[in-house]
Structures are given as structure tokens and as C-alpha cells.
Write a structure and sequence with these properties.
The structure is a single chain. By secondary structure, the chain is of the alpha/beta class. The protein has a single domain (about 40-70, about 120-320), classed as Arginase, Chain A (3-Layer(aba) Sandwich), CATH 3.40.800.10. About 35% of the residues lie in helices and about 15% in strands. It has helices spanning about 5-10, 10-15, 70-75, 90-95, 115-125, 140-150, 180-185, 215-220, 225-235, 265-275, 300-320, and strands at about 40, 50-55, 95-100, 130-135, 155-160, 195-200, 210-215, 240-245, 280-285. A 9-stranded parallel beta sheet has the order 1-3-2-4-9-8-5-6-7, sandwiched between helices. α10 (about 265-275) links the parallel β8 and β9 (about 280-285).
């Protein structure tokens, strides 16, 4: 980047006219859209919309993930200068990607929030775009899956997580981040035979047909072999990938509501995500980032990188 170019760049999030291309602004200044993409509610010509759901009222332990989308966006400003490493292509230049902002909801009317999330994602999908969502607690994945299943039918779910989130809960009006997978199965939003949970290290006797690769298996078998196993399970079925940041060990991601030791390393995560290239990924999210519990910002940095990898996974199939 030439120095003169840097001097003329300011607030690409508002001023850029081309939705494609890298961004060259000071990481410590300007508007913190995700990867310096343009902030817009205009989905015309958009291939992929990054959006936030700052909702954390479904947690069983510590709150704070309502601040997750903002922190992840800020952390992402370290990345938009170069194409993502190791992919061999630049999705930021090949695709029209925008920051679509956050879901608007009334925090005092929690019961309205699920339908608002579904409608928000449906609007993106109706415009012909995909979505990558920044959470928020893990409950938000359920209304997102409703939007995707409405358009594409039952999906293969790839879930990186310390917890299975399949605790039985037949009260479908309850809003709980620990039961969203159970409800997604019962509502027919996902196909458990084609779905896989990676990094699990908490006890739940009921899998409801989900394939489970626990954290110990990843450590013993290796990240590359685990990715190959995931690919065999999912096949070419339309897939959605949700990454709970607590899949990572607290040493790598302390800023989360329900941390569990013995988790994945960031190196294992990046190998697995990159080795999934070629799956039919329709969308994804990264959730459970709780900035108040991490003064270093490392958790948000990890989440920003994960969201970027999801963009690359989404783009890999579409450029073939």
C-alpha cells in the first residue's frame, strides 16, 4: 500500500462505492465494520451479508455476549489489508460482501426476538445473499436455521462446541442456548445423520442421532483427520456451520459464558476449517463471545478470524 493511498482512505465503512476489494485504513481508527466492509441496508448486488445479533438473554451462566458483535467487528480491523492466508484466493475482492448491521429488537420483549431474527435472515436470503452472523449467545442459531430451512430444507449442521446443546426441552416457547440443537432436530431444520458436533467435552446422554467427535478425539486423531471425518459425514449436503467460541480451550478464548477446560487449540480450529474447503456451506455464525471476561481481546480476535474463515469456506464453493 502506498503512503499516499493510505492518506486518502477514511471510513470505508461509509464512503466506499465498490463492495469488492481490500481496505487500507489505520486499524486503530475509523468505523469498525466487519473487515471494513461497507455498512449498508441495501442488499442489491450483495453476495454475502455479515450481520450481528447482540442477544444474550438465553444463557445458563454468565451474560455479556450482547457485546460480542461489536468486539468481533473491532478485532476484525486487523485483517482487511491482505487476502486471508492459506486459501489461495481473495473472497473480499471476488465477492460483494457488506456489513448489514445488527438485528433490531426490544430487549424488554424477549419473546419477540426469535421471530425478528428469523425475519432478518429471511430478508438476506430472499435477496439472494448468504449470511455470516456474529453473536450473541448460541440460542440465536435456532431462528437462523429456521430461515435457512425455510428456503433450503433440512440442513447438515456442523457445530464446533464444548456443549452438545441437545438437552431435551419440549417447551418450544422457552428461549435457551442449551437446547437449540434438540429443537432444531424436532422441528426438522437439520438432518442429524448428516450433522456433526466437534469439540464436545461435557456430559449429555442424549445425542438424538447427532454424530459426535469429542475434544479428546480431535487431540488424539489430529485436526486433519477430524476434518476428513466431518467431510464424510456431511458429504455434499447443504450445510450450515456454527462455531461456539467455547469450543476453544479457555487458554485461547477465556471470554465466554461457560468455559470448559480441555478444548481445541486455535491451530486445530484453523486446520479443520480450512480442510473443510469444498463443502456446500450456505451460511454460518460464530457465537458466545463475551468481551467482559477477556481484557486482552484474544477471544474476539479468534472469533474475527473464525468469521473470516467462514467467509472463505462460503466463497470456495461459489468460485468453482
Amino acid at each position: 500500500m502506498a503512503l499516499e493511498d493510505a492518506k486518502t482512505k477514511i471510513d470505508d465503512a461509509f464512503t466506499r462505492s465498490d463492495l469488492r476489494g481490500l481496505s487500507f485504513e489505520n486499524a486503530f481508527a475509523g468505523a469498525t465494520s466487519f473487515l471494513r466492509r461497507k455498512y449498508t441496508k441495501d442488499l442489491s448486488g450483495v453476495d454475502l451479508a455479515i450481520t450481528g445479533v447482540p442477544f444474550d438473554q438465553a444463557v445458563t451462566n454468565r451474560t455479556g455476549t450482547r457485546m460480542g458483535p461489536r468486539a468481533i467487528r473491532e478485532a476484525s480491523t486487523l485483517q482487511p489489508y491482505d487476502p486471508p492466508y492459506g486459501w489461495g484466493f481473495d473472497p473480499l475482492s471476488e465477492f460483494a460482501i457488506v456489513d448489514y448491521g445488527d438485528v433490531a429488537f426490544d430487549y424488554a420483549k424477549v419473546w419477540e426476538t426469535p421471530d425478528l431474527i428469523t425475519a432478518h435472515i429471511c430478508k438476506i436470503l430472499a435477496a439472494g445473499a448468504g449470511s455470516i452472523t456474529l453473536g450473541g449467545d448460541h440460542f440465536i442459531t435456532l431462528p437462523i436455521l429456521k430461515a435457512y430451512a425455510e428456503k433450503h430444507g433440512p440442513l447438515a449442521l456442523i457445530q464446533f462446541d464444548a456443549h452438545s446443546d441437545t438437552w431435551q426441552d419440549d417447551d418450544f416457547d422457552r428461549i435457551d442456548h442449551g437446547t437449540f440443537v434438540y429443537k432444531a432436530i424436532k422441528l426438522g431444520l437439520i438432518d442429524p445423520a448428516r450433522s456433526v458436533q466437534v469439540g464436545i467435552r461435557t456430559t449429555n446422554p442424549d445425542s438424538w442421532g447427532m454424530n459426535i467427535i469429542d475434544a479428546r478425539s480431535v487431540h488424539e486423531e489430529g485436526a486433519a483427520d477430524t476434518a476428513a471425518q466431518i467431510r464424510r459425514i456431511v458429504g455434499d449436503h447443504p450445510a450450515y456451520l456454527t462455531f461456539d467460541i467455547d469450543a476453544l480451550d479457555p487458554a485461547y478464548a477465556p471470554g465466554t459464558g461457560t468455559p470448559v477446560w480441555g478444548g481445541l487449540t486455535s491451530a486445530q480450529a484453523v486446520i479443520m476449517l480450512r480442510d473443510l474447503a469444498g463443502i456446500n456451506l450456505l451460511g454460518g455464525d460464530v457465537v458466545e463471545v463475551s468481551p467482559p471476561y477477556d481484557t486482552t481481546g484474544a477471544t474476539a480476535i479468534a472469533a474475527a478470524h473464525i468469521a473470516t474463515e467462514l467467509i472463505c469456506l462460503w466463497g470456495w464453493t461459489r468460485r468453482r
